[in-house]
Amino acid sequence: MCRLIVVLLLLCSIPAIADLQQLDAIKLKPREQRITLLEQTLNDAQFTTYPLDYQLSYIRTLANDYRDSGNAQKALPILQQYLATNALHEPQFGYLYLSLAHSYYLLQQYDEAEKTVQLGLSFATEPQHTNLHLLLVNRLGAIYHNTGRYEDAIKLLLNNLPLAEANSNQRYLEGLYSQLGRNLERLTHYQQALEFKLKAFAIAKAIYPEENLASSYYGLGQSYLDLALYPDAKFYFQKSLELDLLKNDPLDIGHSQMKLSFSEFKLGNLESAIIFAEAARGSFITANSARDQAWVELNLSTIYLDKQQLQQAQNALQKAQLYFFAKDAEVNMQSDVWYNLARLRHLSTTPPFSYDELDKAIAIETEHGYITKHIRSLALKQQFAMANQDLSLALEISLQLAAIRQRVHEQAIELQRSIALSTLEHNRKDLTITQLELERIKQQRLVEQQKQQQLLALFVFVIVLLLSLIITAIVFYRRKLEQREKDYLATLMTQKDNLFSDISHDLRTPLTALSLTIEAVECGLMPADSDTFKKLSGKVVTLTTLVEDISELARLNSPDFKLKSEPVNVFAYLEELKDSLSLMVKQHQFTFRNQLGNGLILQLDKSRMTQVLFNLITNSAKYTHAPGQVSFSAEVTERGVYFCIEDTSPGVSDAAIPKLFERLYREDSARSQGKGNGLGLAIVKRIVSLHGGEVWASHSPLGGLKVCIIFPIVN
């Protein structure tokens, strides 16, 4: 009898095993063939007899294939019908809601997508459903991003960041970091966006194969594009396109081609920009994406306007206008169309210029918070006002631009504060929940009059308890702040002691060598000849250089130190330095590229600026293996005047990059080899900072180190 039961159980399990094996086999097929097989399986009358997990796997696989092949519309009825006829509250159904929300998202039905995500979250309320919860949060952040609710997206993602960081599966954390980067860049917090994207990229490189990193490269390219670092942006978009071509997804290929077009446009390579844009148009036609085709036409109109090809620009704008003005949700693109129409009017007519198109663009940008575009449109309107000799309007716009830039700066500070106080926000939410619970108790007390005294006593007890907790929390928080202050002071003292220790060590070593050499001469162990005195002189020079650099750094950090700034024609100044810089690297190949305009004026202390450039070029020449290559370039970007010094191998380690500008820091690597005293780059950083600029280091594509400086252009 027992044997018979075992045989029956085995026979019952065979269809389930066969179904699972059949699904695994189908997944290995090419996409089009896989879709056909899955459709046949779902239409089979036996499908409803499959175990629930297998049914869900078939449904999700088919829906994903529809979406990936550009047919998200076909995924909707399958998912909607299955969810309508299977109203089980099982966690697995949360993944179907996630798939349905993704389909709505691709079809730009964002309201439906948001409602569907909220339904899916109701299936992910338990700790064991954290993975589903994080996937739904990620999708909701993308919906907020595409509907312009960037601050809501950032709050949502920051609130769930601790949950993702505690999760063992790093891909969920990578997704949240990426979404944070995308939303931060929309609020023009480009540097913070890049930091989150670099965190996401580090995780992605560790857990995904190279062929799956296309979106990561694309995101980094967008950040460098926003930071006006166009050569870096072009590099990452090229990497993204290479990987997209391997997967042969026309939609992704088109997006990478469009970003390459934009990078080439910003670099001034207009013909290359047109070639990439037209290639993107072909990709979007293949993907049957009318929206992206209109996006191509809009960007082509921008390029044609720069080339003064007004008829081509007008034709492209008409195509873009035909699509985007028919879509109420495309307000972002509508503002770009109005802006380009204003540019077309400007180039094709003479003053006085009409403000109609620009006012429509500005109205959209003001309503939806498109800060970067708002600044762009106001700047063009100010140009129109000047051409129309409307000086009062030009002054008013100038004040508006200053206010907007101040607001952006304040928002950046507030964002840093929000990130730092995310934990406190959790506590506030807990307090809000407690207050809501008290309100419920209060209402219940009013309804149940016969228990008024008991409920009143309970209410008083709860209030006292809460006050005690709040007082305790305040005391604890104050003590914590005091402890942080003590720790900070202790850290400062430790840094001071370490600085003195490092200086004394760097002085003691040559002094000891000098003393031993003198004693050897006195004792007759070494001859008192010219070679010995040269060695002594070399040690004295080393000491003198170290003391001078320490003195120089102290002088630069003194509150009384002032730069001797003057208006400098930067192009002419660099041309004067060209020969001197070349002589400093004569043992290497030297490339000098000065792309600045001859009329560009900056307030600079020429002697200090020369000190910075000589220091950086000398470092590259000193630490680069001969024969090597040293490159200097200067160009104007949207952020300011951009100087860059690059060299060939050897490079520095990832861990050393952030420490290069610290005092007395010297990397223990082939690049250092005991050269220098570790103060040169600290002096460079201080001088650049006094000029109001920024300096940073990164790995160079040439194989060595890349040091970049940006000075803002102040009108």
UniProtKB/TrEMBL annotation:
Transmembrane spans: 455-477
Signal peptide residue numbers: 1-18
UniProt keyword list: ATP-binding, Kinase, Membrane, Nucleotide-binding, Phosphoprotein, Signal, TPR repeat, Transferase, Transmembrane, Transmembrane helix, Two-component regulatory system
GO molecular function: ATP binding
Renumbered ranges of TPR repeats: 214-247
Reactions performed catalytically: ATP + protein L-histidine = ADP + protein N-phospho-L-histidine
Start and end residues of each Histidine kinase domain: 502-715
Superkingdom of origin organism: Bacteria
Enzyme Commission numbers on file: 2.7.13.3
Protein name: histidine kinase
